[in-house]
Amino acid sequence: MIFAPSLLGADLLNLGEEVRRVESWGAEWIHFDQMDGHFVPNISFGPAFVAAVRKKTDLFLDVHLMLSDPMNYIDAFADAGADGITVHAEAAEPAAVLEKIRARGLRAGICVNPGTPASVLKPLLPMADLALIMTVQPGFGGQKMRRECLLKAAEIRAMTEAARHPVLIEADGGINEGNAREVLDAGVDVLVMGTGLFRAEDPAGVIAEIRGGRA
Ligand code: DX5
Ligand code: ZN
C-alpha cells in the first residue's frame, strides 16, 4: 500500500515544513490537487507549487488535474517536476492527454468522479498506469467518503486483468484511519489522504496503524 498525503489539507503557509512532516510520516507520495474553478468549483496550487516542492523532496509527486482542458498544462507540470499526472475521464480528450503524459515519461493516471461508471475507463485504461477513484465529489477536502465508489476498484481490476494490463488503483476523498482498511480491502493500492492525516493528532501513528493492518 502507498500513502499519498494531499497538500490541499496542509498548512499552506508552511508548505516546506509540511513536506518535511510528510516525509517523516513515511509516506511515499505527495498528492497535489490542481483545480481550475471550472471543472470543479475551487481553485488551487499551480505548476509553481509543484516546482517549489520538487526542490525540497524526492518523494513521488502525484499531480491530480481537476481541469476541464488539461492538455495545455501537461508540459508545465512535467517541467515543474511531476512524477505522475492524473486527468479526469470527464475532461477534454482524455486518451490524447494520457498519451502526452506518457510521451513526457511520466506515470499516466485516469480518474472518475463518483457519478461516472467505471465502464467509461475501458477504452482509456490501456493508455494508463493508474486509475484514480474519487470517493468524494472533487473540489474540497474534509468531505465524507462515499463508500459505494469503492465498488469500482473490483471493476477496474477485472478490466485490466482481462486486458493483461495491470494498473495501480488509487482512491481519493474522505479516507481516514477509520475507513482505510475497508478501502484497502476493496482492492485499492494508493490512499490519498488530506484531512485524515493533516488534522490527525499523530499522522505517523495513523499511517503505522493502517500499515500494520490494525486500523
Ligand atoms: C478533493 C481532492 C482530494 C482531497 C482529499 O477534490 O481531490 O484529494 O484533497 O482530501 P480529504 O482526504 O480531506 O478528503
Ligand atoms: Zn485529489
What is this entry, summarized?
With 215 residues, this protein is α/β, with parallel strands linked by helices. The protein has 8 helices and 9 strands. The two termini are 13 Å apart.
How would you portray this structure in words?
This protein has helices at 15-24, 47-54, 74-80, 94-103, 151-162, 180-185, 195-198, 203-211; strands spanning 2-5, 29-36, 43-44, 60-66, 84-88, 107-112, 130-134, 168-172, 190-193. It has a single domain (2-211), classed as TIM Barrel (Alpha-Beta Barrel). α2 packs parallel to α3 (74-80). It is of the alpha/beta class. The chain has a 9-stranded mixed beta sheet with strand order 1-9-8-7-6-5-4-2-3. The mean pLDDT is 97. The two termini are 13 Å apart. A hairpin with a 6-residue loop joins β2 and β3. D-xylitol-5-phosphate binds at residues 6, 8-9, 31, 33, 64, 136, 138-143, 172-175, 192-196.
The separation of the N and C termini measures: 13 Å
Output mean pLDDT: 97
Order of helices and strands: EHEEHEHEHEEHEHEHH
Question: Which ligands, by name, code or SMILES, are bound?
Answer: D-xylitol-5-phosphate, zinc ion
Overall domain count: 1
Contiguous uncertain segments of 5+ residues: none
